[in-house]
């Protein structure tokens, strides 16, 4: 990850809820994939949301034979650092996950960077796994842009998930295992604090195995 240059400015209030969301989901589990900068911070935030049952740090957007950290870091593979989120839609909706993603996980107006990390592997992407997810994500971005929720236009891509490749084991739960790492302290601890502040009803403690 890049050199620590300072924390992102966190919002004080969560963004408005999506006006378009899932209706009466029947599946017990659903999968969502998000890219929003370094996957350490994305994973540690989604892990603390009630209704999320599993998260995995990994890579999406490129091919299997280029899905290694060294190759992805070269910014030549097309991959984005991503997090696969498995959740129970009877406990938390896809739209609520999007609301957290845009409110506290990252800045969706930054093109190909988040904080100190620069390059296409840090771009903002929603990899949808169903047509309904595509519809909800596109509608929410349009809703936020129309409301001028951010000072600049949202640049988040909404594209189909072709494949997700698990990241190396040492990247899993990285923020939990390395809480005193200066990067984690500056870039990721504030995200967890913002989640707890803005979405107290969704917040849960997380213990890595």
General description of the model:
Helix 1 packs parallel to helix 6 and helix 3 (94-105) crosses helix 6 (182-198). The protein has a single domain (30-198), classed as Peptide methionine sulphoxide reductase MsrA (Peptide Methionine Sulfoxide Reductase, Chain A, 2-Layer Sandwich), CATH 3.30.1060.10. The chain starts with 29 loop residues before the first strand and ends in an 11-residue tail after the last helix. It has a 6-stranded mixed beta sheet with strand order 7-6-1-3-2-8, with helices on one face. Strands 4-5 form a two-stranded antiparallel sheet. The model is unreliable at 3-9 (pLDDT under 50). Strand 6, helix 4 (131-146) and strand 7 (157-160) form a beta-alpha-beta unit. The longest helix is centred in the C-terminal third of the chain and has 17 residues, at 182-198. It has helices spanning 39-46, 69-73, 94-105, 131-146, 174-177, 182-198; strands at residues 30-36, 52-60, 80-87, 113-114, 117-118, 124-128, 157-160, 165-166. The chain contains 6 helices and 8 strands; from the N terminus they run βαβαβαβββαββαα. The chain is an alpha+beta fold and 209 residues long.
């Amino acid at each position: 990850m890049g050199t620590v240059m300072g924390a992102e400015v966190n919002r004080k209030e969560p963004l408005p809820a999506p006006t378009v969301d899932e209706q009466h989901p029947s599946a017990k589990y659903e999968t969502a994939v998000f890219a929003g900068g370094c996957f350490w911070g994305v994973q540690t935030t989604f892990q603390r949301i009630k209704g999320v049952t599993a998260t995995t740090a990994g890579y999406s957007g490129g091919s299997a034979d280029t899905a290694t950290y060294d190759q992805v870091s070269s910014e030549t593979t097309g991959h984005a650092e991503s997090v696969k989120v498995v959740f129970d839609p009877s406990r938390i909706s896809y739209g609520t996950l999007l609301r957290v993603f845009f409110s506290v996980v990252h800045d969706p107006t930054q093109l190909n960077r988040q904080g100190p990390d620069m390059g296409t592997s840090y771009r903002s992407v929603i990899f949808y796994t169903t047509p309904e997810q595509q519809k909800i994500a596109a509608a929410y971005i349009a809703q936020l842009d129309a409301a001028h929720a951010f000072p600049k236009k949202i640049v988040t891509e909404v594209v189909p998930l072709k494949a997700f490749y698990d990241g190396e084991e040492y990247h899993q739960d990285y923020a939990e295992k390395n809480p005193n790492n200066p990067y984690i302290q500056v870039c990721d601890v504030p995200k967890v604090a913002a989640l707890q502040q803005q979405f107290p009803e969704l917040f849960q403690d997380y213990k890595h195995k």
